[in-house]
Write a structure and sequence with these properties.
single chain; 442 residues; alpha+beta; OB fold (Dihydrolipoamide Acetyltransferase, E2P); 6-stranded mixed β-sheet; 5-stranded antiparallel β-sheet; 6 helices; 27% strand
Length: 442
């Protein structure tokens, strides 16, 4: 079947992309991985590759157009016999079937780290609910973390197209926010929702239905859908969410579900005979977290000054790597080489730096050292993300997100990778450097 090419989301705050140029024309043969077009955002110009083999049968946007993220800009057909057409004066396909609600589309965002899909953990809003720009709309899980995604416009949730638990490709429309309150809001899989109406006459009483049988839980694949706050509180209360889900607890799990889950766990424990101390399993090392805040103005002023000093050449990834490495080394007694990887929200590969605290910031360049990083820094500044928690920790993960006029730092780490003393030293030193960078030049 034809493959639709959409305007990708190259950054968290991006809602449109400027189509700089087409590298293929209508009727051209194209292979997956070939450069198809060049897209410009407010931060960079990137080449976008084709995602399928075939022939370019249709171009729906012209070079120079500003196209909303998620809109189809081209179609790749399976055969050369398909009719090839150039872009029309206006881009975007006409909706098929019943007209979709009008409003601002909400797309599955690209959260970086080569992500091509996102798993919807939970919706914070339901169809028909009012929502304000900046309010948390949903939670999305990638292979590394669960993030809260904010609404980019105010209005009402006119439609939700993907249910909690669905894995959705990046750039696909998952909801619509309308300016006016919808008369028939839609939920996932609904052609339209039926408005509530008062009955013409009071119906005759009917016998109460028998209680429905408890649903049989689906096979557990090991993935737990839970909000970051629910995970944290469950950890503090000693609740094993994976075990509870495997035993039939419903997902996604919210904070309001924890009391019921705690009672369920207690009931399960009461039916299991006490084991002797010798038979008790070894304790499992759990990830720990430290959080801190620092003024945002310090880093902004410092990177601007550094760029001016170096003729405009300055990378925030290098600054963050140098500051983080210095803080990491402060909590260590050894002098071993330290490799730090910096990830950004634009989907680019992580940038690696070796011993970034031992080089001049103006000349610090990425490293080709292939050894595993001892720390991963995730730079999510400039995005609408307000909270993030790392999962599947191969190395400690230090995340920076915006918090009003401040930078919120969070360090997720396991005891076998970083002890508490070194973790405290890292977060303390980095927060101090971000607050007053010029007082901590390396």
């Amino acid at each position: 079947m034809p493959h639709e090419v959409i305007m990708p989301a190259l950054g968290m705050a991006q809602d449109t992309g400027h189509l700089v140029a087409w590298r293929k024309e209508a009727g051209d043969r194209v292979c997956a991985g070939d450069v198809l077009m060049e897209i410009e955002t407010d931060k960079s110009t990137v080449e976008v590759e084709a995602g399928a083999d075939g022939w370019v049968t249709e171009l729906r946007a012209r070079a120079g157009d500003d196209v909303p993220v998620g809109r189809v800009v081209a179609v790749i057909g399976e055969t050369p016999e398909a009719q090839a057409t150039a872009p029309a004066a206006t881009s975007g396909p006409a909706p098929a079937g019943e007209a979709a609600p009008e409003g601002d589309p909400v797309i599955m965002p690209a959260l970086g780290m080569a992500q091509d899909t996102g798993l919807i953990v939970a919706w914070a809003k339901a169809p028909g609910d009012p929502v304000a720009a900046g309010e948390v709309l949903l939670e999305v899980e990638t292979d590394k973390s669960t993030l809260e995604i904010e609404a980019q416009s105010s209005g009402f949730v006119a439609e939700i197209r993907a249910a909690a638990g669905a894995s959705v490709p990046v750039g696909e429309v998952i909801a619509v926010i309308s300016a006016e309150k919808p008369t028939a809001p839609r939920g996932p899989g609904e052609a339209s929702a039926t408005p509530k109406a008062e009955p013409a006459a009071k119906p005759a009483p009917t016998p109460a239905p028998a209680p429905a049988a408890a649903p049989v839980p689906a096979a557990f694949d090991g993935r737990v859908l839970a909000s970051p706050k629910a995970r944290r509180l469950a950890s503090e209360r000693g609740l094993d969410l994976a075990r509870l889900v495997a035993e039939g607890a419903g997902q996604p799990i919210h904070v309001r579900d924890l009391d019921a889950l705690a009672a369920r766990a207690a009931a399960a424990r009461s039916t299991v005979p006490a084991a002797s101390p010798a038979a008790a399993p070894a304790a499992v090392s759990q990830a720990a977290r430290l959080e801190a805040r620092a003024p945002a103005a310090g880093l902004e002023a410092f990177t601007a000054w550094l760029a001016a000093e170096n003729g405009g050449a300055s990378r925030r990834t290098a600054v963050l790597a140098a500051f983080a490495t210095a803080g990491l080394r402060a909590g260590r007694d050894d002098a071993q080489p330290l490799v730090v990887a910096v990830e950004t929200a634009d989907g680019a590969d992580p940038v690696r730096y070796a011993d970034a605290d031992r080089a001049r910031l103006g000349t610090l360049a990425p490293s080709t050292d292939a050894s595993a990083p001892v720390l991963v820094v995730r730079d999510l500044l400039g995005t609408p993300i307000v909270a993030a928690r790392a999962g599947g920790l191969a190395a400690p993960v230090l995340t920076l997100v915006p918090a009003g006029g401040e930078i919120a730092l969070s360090l997720d780490y396991a005891a076998d990778a970083l002890d508490d003393r070194a973790a405290v030293a890292l977060v303390t030193a980095l927060a101090a450097r971000l607050a007053e960078p010029l007082h901590h030049l390396l």
